[in-house]
Design brief:
With 212 residues, this protein is of the alpha+beta class. It contains 6 helices and 5 strands, in the order βββββαααααα. Strands 1, 2, 3, 4 and 5 form a 5-stranded antiparallel β-sheet that branches.
Length: 212
C-alpha cells in the first residue's frame, strides 16, 4: 500500500483490536506502521452483525486522508495557504475543500494571470482565449467546469467560496489542477531562472557576455 503520510509504498501487515458489538454493527480497530516514516495508519472497521466477513465501511481514523506531495517553496504563501487548507479538510468535507480550491484558483487567475475580475466561468474563458497555458493545462482548467457541473451549479462560478454539493472527484480534481498551475506559474520559471544564472556565471568566467 501507499503510506498516506509520506506517500512511500510498503508491504502492509495489519494488526487489529476488536472492541465489541452495538445495536447495529461489530467494531474493530485495525492498524499498521509505515517502515519509511514510522507512523501509524489506523482504520475503523464497521462490520455487519449478520455478515461478520462483510465490512460495511472502513474509514481512515489516522491520518484523516491521504497526504499530497508538499508544495515547492516557490509557491507564494497567499496561494499555498488556501491549497493546504483544502488538502486538510478534504477527508472531512469535500464541499469545503472544493470551495477553498475554487477561491484559490480565482485568486491565482486574478493575481498572476491578470484576468479581468468576473465570475469564475468567464475568467476561465479569458484564460483559455489568451492561449497562455500549455495544452494539457488548458484542457485541465476547462474540465473544471464539466467536472464541477457548473451548468447545474452556477453558484460555483459566481460565488467561488460557497460550500455546496460537489460532484464525485471534483475536490480532488481542483487540487490536481492547482498543483499543475503552481508548477507552471511559479516552479518552472524559478527553475529556468536558476539555470540561466548558472549559465551566465559560466559565461562570465569565460569572459563572454551573459544571456539577456
Amino acid at each position: 500500500m501507499k503510506c498516506p503520510h509520506c506517500l512511500e509504498n510498503f508491504h502492509d501487515q495489519w494488526q487489529s483490536n476488536y472492541f465489541g458489538i452495538d445495536a447495529n454493527y461489530a467494531w474493530t480497530l485495525a492498524y499498521t506502521t509505515c517502515p519509511a516514516c514510522e507512523r501509524y495508519i489506523v482504520v475503523l472497521l464497521q462490520k455487519d452483525k449478520a455478515l461478520p466477513n462483510f465490512v460495511h465501511s472502513k474509514p481512515m481514523v489516522y491520518p484523516k486522508g491521504v497526504s499530497r506531495a508538499p508544495l515547492p517553496p516557490e509557491v507564494p504563501k497567499e496561494y499555498a495557504q488556501d491549497y493546504k487548507e483544502a488538502c486538510l479538510v478534504i477527508a472531512d468535507s469535500s464541499k469545503a475543500s472544493a470551495a477553498l480550491s475554487r477561491r484559490c484558483l480565482q485568486n491565482l487567475f486574478r493575481g498572476v494571470a491578470k484576468v479581468k475580475p468576473s465570475d469564475l466561468n468567464k475568467e476561465i474563458d479569458e484564460i483559455l482565449s489568451s492561449k497562455q497555458l500549455p495544452t494539457h493545462l488548458a484542457e485541465a482548467v476547462d474540465a473544471i467546469r464539466h467536472v464541477g457541473n457548473f451548468a447545474a451549479h452556477p453558484v460555483k462560478s459566481t460565488n467561488t467560496g460557497a460550500v455546496i454539493d460537489v460532484e464525485a472527484g471534483e475536490a480532488e480534481w481542483l487540487l490536481d489542477v492547482l498543483e499543475g498551475l503552481f508548477d507552471f506559474y511559479f516552479v518552472q520559471p524559478a527553475l529556468l531562472q536558476k539555470k540561466k544564472t548558472a549559465l551566465n556565471k559560466k559565461l562570465q568566467d569565460a569572459g563572454k557576455p551573459p544571456m539577456k
